[in-house]
Amino acid sequence: MSNYTIQVTWSGKNALGSTDPEKIISGADYHTEFSAIQTAINSKMDITSGTTTGQTLVNPVFNTGITGTAVLDEDNMSSNSATKIATQQSIKAYVDTTAAGTTQTLTNKSINLANNTVTGTLSQFNSAVSDATLVDLDDSQTLVNKTLTAPTINGAVGGTATSQTITTLTTSNVDGILGANTPAAVTGTTGSFSGAVTASTTPSNANHLTNKTYVDTLFAGMASRSIVTAATTANITIATALNNGDTLDGVTLSTGDLVLVKDQSTASQNGIYVVGASPARDDLFDTYDEHPGSLIVITEGTVNAENIYICTSDEGGSLDSTSITWAKVTPAATSLTNLTDVTISSPVAGQAIVHNGSTFVNGSAGVGVGLAIALGG
Question: What does the DSSP 8-state code read for residue 164?
Answer without folding.
Answer: -
